[in-house]
Specification:
9 helices; alpha+beta; five-stranded antiparallel beta sheet; binds adenosine-5'-diphosphate; binds magnesium ion; six-stranded mixed beta sheet
């Protein structure tokens, strides 16, 4: 194809065969990934799975041992960080403590030689964007954790990068504030429209925030997709267990419960817990068991049931408590699920 119209736009970020070793440690082991412009993309994985290293290679703070980093269709593999149209928000925010909020936000413009009037105007706009107008004269110590996080965000956005990289941006905040900031971060990203790539080890955060995510394990990507893809159709056993929880059924147990070979995942919330004499809906599969553990968690109750030589987890909504059977340890129950709840795994 030669016409420009027919050629697909190059993705904002493209990683091709990226590898990174530190001595004997293989930090990143062959990553291919494309992130289109304007996406809110999450890199999710356990500690040590290579997320930060991938982010640092996009930013240019690390050089890949092998592979290519393309930004906006251009090979950026050998470019130093300041020549990439990319900015980073670090987990510790790295604000200058001796500067005011206004000075912190203006900093990136000052080092780029932007004049005073323009600096003041753009910093004001950036502070407004993160809803911190009126805080310009404060110093970082006079701010809460969430406010500091937003200053860091304003400071990164003020230079209008094409891509913003965020490494565990909400990691230092307590749960309530983190949930608020998740919503705000998403709103800000929508407002500015630039690509955000954020790293997290928190699966709830990744699922809540992102347009799409990549699940990392031991330096590799196990799956890329939107939240529902990854949750409903995990590509591997690792993803099924890391993103939410799954009952993994294989071998003899899969034979007994599912009449199937191979490895299968069933989400706990897709299993219904019934009394021993309750009618099981037609077309549902069933197994009798005994309650081994009951964990009350406010909105839900998690029940572990010994059945067919294994232990299965089910999650029940407490709002539906009236319809639930006797949930005490040792009580006999029947577990039921539909065939559509069973997801076959590659391994
Ligand atoms: P994550 O961000 O997913 O927790 P990292 O990318 O930080 O993972 O690290 C991946 C692996 O690479 C880990 O085993 C880590 O110890 C190792 N690693 C990262 N940076 C360095 C470094 N500068 N020197 C040596 N090993 C490193
Ligand atoms: Mg990290």
């Amino acid at each position: 194809m030669t016409s420009d119209q027919a050629r697909p736009a190059s993705p904002g970020i493209a990683l091709e065969g990226i590898r990174k070793t530190f001595g004997d440690v293989v930090a990143v082991d062959g990553v291919d990934l494309e992130i289109p412009d304007g996406e809110l993309f999450a890199m999710l994985g356990p500690s040590g799975s290579g997320k930060t290293t991938v982010l640092r290679m996009i930013a240019g703070f690390e050089q890949p041992t092998a592979g290519t980093v393309r930004l906006g269709g251009v090979d950026a593999t050998a470019l130093p960080p300041f020549k990439r149209d990319v900015n980073t928000v670090f987990q510790d925010y790295a604000l200058f403590p001796h500067m005011t909020v206004q000075q912190n936000v203006e900093y990136g413009l000052r080092v780029r030689g932007v004049g005073r009037a323009e600096r003041t105007k753009r910093a004001g706009e950036a502070l407004e964007m993160v809803r911190l107008s009126g805080f310009g004269a404060r110093r970082p110590v006079q701010l809460s954790g969430g406010q500091r996080q937003r200053v860091a965000l304003a400071r990164a956005l003020v230079v209008r990068p094409r891509v913003l990289l965020l490494d565990e941006p909400l990691g230092a905040l307590d749960l309530k504030l983190r949930e608020q900031m998740q919503v705000e971060l998403k709103a800000i990203q929508r407002e500015v429209g630039i690509t955000f790539v954020f790293v997290t080890h928190d699966q709830d955060e990744a699922l809540t925030l992102c347009d799409r995510l990549a699940v990392f394990n031991q330096g590799r990507i196990e799956q890329v997709g939107d939240a529902a893809d990854v949750y409903e159709r995990p590509a591997s056993r690792f993803v099924a267990e890391f993103v939410g929880t799954s009952n993994i059924l294989e071998g003899r147990v899969a034979q007994a419960l599912l009449d199937r070979e191979g490895v299968h995942a069933v989400r706990p919330e897709k299993i219904t817990v019934l009394g021993p004499d309750a009618a099981v809906p037609p077309q549902a599969r069933r197994v009798s068991g005994t309650i081994a553990e009951v964990v009350y968690a406010g909105a839900t109750t998690r029940v572990l049931v010994d059945a067919a030589g294994t232990t299965l987890a089910a999650v029940l909504l407490n709002a539906e408590a009236d319809a639930l059977p006797d949930l005490t340890r040792g009580a006999p129950v029947v577990l039921a699920w539909h065939e559509s709840a069973v997801h076959a795994l590659a391994s």
